[in-house]
Design a protein that fits this description.
By secondary structure, the protein is α/β, with parallel strands linked by helices. It starts with a helix and ends in a 6-residue tail after the last strand. The chain is about 35% helix and about 15% strand. It is globular and about 50 Å long.
């Protein structure tokens, strides 16, 4: 189906059935009913260093104890899997920007969210390359951040603080070591944002955390520009591969 036709069909369907749960079809509880959210998005204890689920009794995983990341903590709401993977990919495609709100609403159930937000002076989204931004028409991380702000509080935002290099590599097809090797090439801090970042606690918002390479690059750039500490909030954490 051509993209424009699909887009019009999707908008027409949303207008006719705006409240149908996209998992079970229940009405009027769309796009995700409370029962499906309960079953598919349980709040799990997660490592503040890597956002992976923690074993009972632990406060941080062994890997992060041994090699702490440069950020203070990262909070992920769900594992990257059904149905969140399809929602996030659709949000990235630009066909349904309205999915930013129900995805952001997932964060509200996490009891760790209020402290994370209270510990931030500034919020900013992970940046796209200029080419990606032109292709999509908007930054999905910014859309998620704006949706969360409307649901919680109005933060001081710096949406253009991070700049992603035009020749920055695409990371999603790279392995962990290859991703980490590209860290220094990903981000710079815009000159106009440096004064605002100096001495501030920064919250970085993104859609998915895979290996942490993107977050590491953003954190190092922000700390290098004078931020005192950096935390992060993502919707989904990709489970580690089983070798």
């Amino acid at each position: 189906m051509p993209h424009s036709i699909h887009h019009r069909w999707r908008r027409a369907w949303d207008a006719l059935c705006p409240a149908v749960c996209e998992v079970c079809g229940r009405w009027p509880d769309g796009p995700l009913c409370p029962d499906c959210q309960h079953d598919l998005a349980p709040v799990l204890p997660r490592c503040p260093g890597c956002a992976l689920p923690l074993a009972p009794g632990l406060t941080r995983c062994a890997d992060c104890e041994r090699s702490p990341p440069p950020w203070t903590r990262v909070l992920a709401r769900v594992d990257y899997g059904y149905p969140w993977d399809a929602w996030i990919l659709t949000l990235k495609s630009g066909t349904r920007p309205g999915l930013a709100r129900p995805l952001a609403q997932l964060w509200l159930d996490d009891p760790a969210l209020p402290a994370l937000l209270a510990d931030a002076d500034l919020w900013l989204p992970v940046a796209l390359t200029p080419q990606r931004l032109a292709e999509r028409g908007y930054n999905q991380a910014w859309a998620l951040m704006r949706a969360l702000a409307r649901l919680t509080t109005t933060p001081r935002a710096l949406p253009t603080a991070l700049e992603r290099a035009a020749d920055a590599p695409i990371l999603h097809h790279l392995g962990r070591q290859e991703r980490l090797a590209q860290v220094c090439r990903l981000f710079t801090v815009a000159p106009h944002a440096r004064a605002a970042l100096a001495g501030r606690r920064v919250l970085v918002v993104d859609d998915v955390m895979t290996t942490g390479a993107t977050l590491r690059a953003a954190t190092l750039a922000l700390l290098g520009a004078g931020a005192t500490r950096v935390s992060a909030l993502v919707v989904a954490r990709t489970p580690p591969r089983v070798e």
